[in-house]
Amino acid sequence: MGGLRRGAGSGVSECPRLGLLGGTFNPIHYGHLAMVGAARSALGLDGVWLVPAGQPPHRDDPDLAPAQKRLAWCRRVAAGIPGLDVWDGEIRRSTPAYTWDTLTRLRGQLPEAELFWIVGWDAFVQLPTWHRWEELLGLAHFVVVGRGGETMQAPAWLEGVGRWTPANSVVGRSGAVFPVSMHRVDISATGIRQAVREGRSLIGRLPAEIMVEVQATFVGRL
């Protein structure tokens, strides 16, 4: 399958419940990994794929590290975590990919899998602004992660589009929205880049195996 590397794709039959976490990963950090862990624990996911963005449709960010570098960071981190892998389909596209594009492609490649798109609560409440948003829940479930005690409840616009569902419910291959809570993690990619510029330590913010390269990437950027 195009865009699938070792583990991602070869183990489809072994990963019928597959989580997907998209993002720029600029850089990937422990906050992302905490979301992965919370989703896997709550939903019993067999695996999670990181989906790094190439050129995000809604961003023109001069601070964005090159796509291949962000992909390499994700792969290096995933290599040390069982059940975590990387899908490079968005990186390989010549044009920006919306979530709809990615889920449509993955649904075609993995017709029997249960797909779970993992997203923070702050992003989920903006779902009606997303490209072809009303079709997304026909392609996958959504795992909505509340970070740090956020109060989550079904938004009015969800009616007729998807189902707000307890994490332990048995459902089909798409259409459910699972609210999942996790402990607060005060780490952000923006904060990491700022820490690099200010010469502050990155220990405890991101995995050690990418720390030196992240520092070298962002130290000279304004």
Structure characterization notes:
The protein has eight helices and seven strands. The chain is of the alpha/beta class and 222 residues long. The protein has a single domain, classed as 3-Layer(aba) Sandwich (Rossmann fold), CATH 3.40.50.620. Strands 3-2-1-4-5-7-6 form a seven-stranded parallel sheet, sandwiched between helices. The longest helix is centred in the N-terminal third of the chain and has 14 residues, at 30-43.
Task: Considering the chains and any ligands shown, give keywords for the structure.
single chain, alpha/beta, about 220 residues, disordered N terminus, about 20% strand, seven-stranded parallel beta sheet, 7 strands, Rossmann fold
Strand content is 15-25%
Uncertain spans, ≥5 residues at pLDDT below 50? 1-13
Overall structural class, as computed from helix and strand content, comes to alpha/beta
CATH superfamily: HUPs
Q: How large, in whole angstroms, is the Cα Rg?
A: 17 Å
Q: How many individual domains?
A: 1
Shape: globular
User: Total strand count, please?
Assistant: 7
H and E order: EHEHEHHEHHEEEHH
Order of strands in the sheet with most strands: 3-2-1-4-5-7-6
Q: Which second-level CATH architecture applies?
A: 3-Layer(aba) Sandwich
The major sheet is characterized as: 7 strands, parallel
User: Helical percent range?
Assistant: 25-40%
Mean pLDDT: 90
